[in-house]
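Possible regression after last week's pipeline update?

I re-ran a chain I had predicted before the update to compare outputs. Posting the input and the new output here so someone can diff against the archived version. Not blocking, just want to make sure nothing changed silently.
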Amino acid sequence: MNEGGVLDERFALAPDPELARVAWERVRDAGVEVDSEDVIRLLGFSTAAGDFLVRHPDEGTAVGDPSGRDRAALENEVAADTERLGVVAGLRRFRRRAILRVATRDLAGAAVDDVVREISDVADACVQAACPPNLAVVALGKWGGRELNYASDIDLLLVHGADDPGAAQLVRTLSEQTEDGIAFKVDAALRPGGRSAALSRSLEAILAYYERESATWERQAMIKARAAAGDLALGEAFVAGVEAFVYPDRLEPAAIDEVRRTKVRLEEYIRQRGKELTEVKRGRGGIRDVEFAVQLLQIVHGRRDASLRSPNTLAALAALTTEGYVAAPDADALADAYRFLRRLEHRLQMVRDLQTHDLPPGAPARTALARSLDLPDAAALQREYDRTTTLVRGIHERLFYRPLLEAFAGPAQPRPGIDRAATEELLEGLGFAEPSRSYDVLARVVDADTRLGKVVRNIFPVMAPALALAADPGAALVRLERVGEAVGARQGPADALATDPGAARRLAHVVGASRFATELLVADPERLRALADDAVWADDADAALVRVVARYAARELTPRATGDAITEVADRVLADAVDHAAPTVPFAVIGLGKLGARELNFASDLDVVFVYEGEGPGDLASGVAAAERVMQLVRDAGWEIDADLRPEGRNGPLARSIAGFLEYWERYAEPWESQALLRTRAVAGDRALGRRFELAAGDVAYPPDGVTVDRAVEMRRMRERMERERVKPPEAARFHFKLGHGSLADVQFATELLLLRYAGADEELRTPRTLEAIERLAERRLVEQTVARDLGEAFVFLADVKNALEVDRRVHAEAVPAAPDEQTSLARRLGYEEYPRQAFIDDYLRITRRCRRAMERVFQEELA
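New output (post-update):
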């Protein structure tokens, strides 16, 4: 192929082939022989490169040199230039040549990490060549992190060791405009006192400023401080000295809030300028989102962990990941996104050697930009940019606004498992009865050789309060160890906690409150993912139940919401069982009792009846077979299911046709059976059949003419007989919250009597839910406000007591335990902190006393 054909192919590979052809002709006419594919690619994207080679044709060979340079080589190169051309001209020639050489390698596929490091080293070499003696140059910002852009300012802070350090001369030498431009634009605005203050200060004066006067944002800026040039020993002394103020022993929560407010102000500024979606640096999901998230985590956690104190963003992110502060998938995604955004930013600045961060508006410019990134066209670039910024923004918000981040503020606590004396003191202060023994357990939990150990070690301040509130903190810690052993080498469950400290806090509540839920986690540690803030329903009902336990124990769920949440899990279990049973006739599961009312407790049986559509022995056999299969599947899933409330009880068929139910209710149903239908709800199976059952049951349950005196008398006798016959000994009734004095049964009977009286004529009153029924009755003034208040308060309080007793082992509880220590444990689980046992007993007696009076008031009015 002739030379023209070869060149045409090389031009075609450039981001802008026509620009490549025109620039090649310009530099060839200037006397530069260019046959390197990499240089042609550069000429086809960067007009600054063509201008430089036309002006300095003797630099053609040097720009095309593909090899990278370390700082020592760069210092030798700049020394030769300044000796040959003078300091001012030599610095500018060196900088332009070196930057274009890096750009050539960059467009050819060099790693972003290597590109930013060499650009930073170019700046180091320039500043070192221009720096007078007795002056330390401390690099800040991207320069401090060795992650400079092509056209970055260099942020610096100057520390002097003599009266006349020559700081102003340094700035002039670097930034004075000449026919070859500048070496670097210097920004010293981050110095103490800002632009109006002296350019440099002594070490003592500058450290005194950071100790006494500096704002949060000024200390944040020092995260990236690096001794870069001049008197390196003096610069390193400053970096070491300021570290105590960047990573203080005590971090006020307001400092975290201030970092967040600074970011919000920056976002608002960009939004007002209309650049939220187009500026790579400060726009939504841009470079600053990565940097601020990493820096906030450094500020918070770097006080205890010196490995996090790198000024380099990617190095700091890697350390945060290695040490268990950030989940590996999040960190990997964030690092890849950051590299893409930095490459994009480099391409924007490479074109004209100008400091810009905005995506160009025109399609031709965007197409060339896309091709420079190995993307086919402008549309592909937009898709990749949108995908990347959306991903960054999501992770940024999860890390930067991480729940409970303020829990790490205050004095820097000892890292558990490292300083035994300090950790034992901390455990003793948290209420661990045997701090030495608990330390041994904790040391195994936070073993740094395991991923989970690192994570727990870092987030222990979030978990500690929940463990301390446990009835037995030491036992809770042992259960946490069992979960850790089950996790073993699995990274996923550990990263679930690193991603969301709220999940770690919930885990602490689980092991502190519930043995049965702990065992579910031990059986499958992947269930830890269910503890995350944004966890959604999984196919694993046990994982969903663990989440309910966690949220209940953490007091995130009200007693009412807890009943809803447990019922939602039970409904799913029943629905799955019906699906697997695959009935051959229309078939539905009807919930009664607490299941029907969506008021389940942790150890509640699932009261059900089974209904099918059909006639004859064959359909009956199919319905019964499906019911038997459902019963077995539900029990296999770990739930107790009870179908004894069906017509004829255990003597009747397990499933009955809808016609059979209607006939039974009309001819044989006892009053108590009709009363049980007040809490009817179709739970699973054929929806139409279930709805027909609900409507028919409502017609039976709610007498159209209200309740008769005889029926009310019978209900009162039934209530008294329950208490008399099922609460033994009689004096136990005072603390029998299911059937005793002022118990849940009192609430239930009073509410059901009111529904029987009024809901026959007013269908809007009908609801299987106890608290909702009380509220509807009160809204219509069908019950006294004080009665409604006392019944509602008792229902909520006693349901909470029942859950607090059942959440540990998932064993039925009907009465407050008699032992004082168990009462104390119960009170602590309910959130009582000061004199917990006595405060709980006082509340219990007051609430149940009012409840009994309210129930009696309801029956008295009906029987009057």
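Follow-up from reviewer: compared with the archived run. The mean pLDDT is 93. Marking as no regression found.
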